[in-house]
Design brief:
Blueprint: H1 6-11, H2 15-30, H3 40-50, H4 52-58
């Protein structure tokens, strides 16, 4: 699975998982352009705080 492109990986997810990935991508694109491109962890932490219920349901 490591050699798969992101689109191929997403296509194997459930609808709910794919929707969560899409929301996360949208969230990353909304980040202010002043945030360094390498600040992925900060974006991830913020997404987890804002969407904890969705992530909890996906983990079940």
């Amino acid at each position: 699975m490591q050699n798969q492109k992101p689109v191929e990986k997403i296509s194997t997810l459930t609808q709910e998982q794919a929707a969560a990935v899409e929301k996360f991508i949208d969230y990353l694109q909304e980040e202010p352009k002043t945030v360094p491109a390498g600040d992925f962890q900060s974006s991830l932490d913020s997404f987890i705080r804002e969407h904890s219920e969705l992530l909890r349901r996906l983990a079940q």
